[in-house]
Fold this sequence. Notes:
- The chain is mainly α.
- It has a domain at about 20-105: Vaccinia Virus protein VP39 (Rossmann fold), CATH 3.40.50.150.
- The chain contains five helices and three strands.
- It has a three-stranded parallel beta sheet with strand order 1-2-3.
- Helix 2 (about 55-65) links the parallel strand 1 and strand 2 (about 70-75).
- The longest helix has 20 residues, at about 105-125.
- The chain is globular.
Amino acid sequence: MRRGGCPFEAVPSVGHCACADTSDHPNAKPLALMRYLVGQSSSPRGLVLDPFTGSGTTLLTAKISQRPFIGIELDTNYVTIARSRLAKAHHVYPRSTPTSGEVLTQKEAQARADFQREFVDRLSEFGITIDDLKPK
């Protein structure tokens, strides 16, 4: 960045959002922009967490770049759209390999968090911590 310049000068121009399959989402992001942002903000094998998944562009980017991902979305209609886009990704982007990732509704994410919390609490009753379960 030049002295006194705009901090966003390094962000590539992506033009108009041509997100045909996500046109019903009010805040769709261009795939090119999200590829840049995910590439700049995570390590090559780092987990990508998107707590406001929407139609799944960030998760699609993670899948294409072979990063594990978790997406959480309140609106079940968008969860369906995101899951569909991820399922089609291998046909559209053949170099993308299967990565571990999933899209959860907010209720599913809350249920999983509750289960994990209860699991940790139960372990502590026996004097066991999560670190005790990790391979050494």
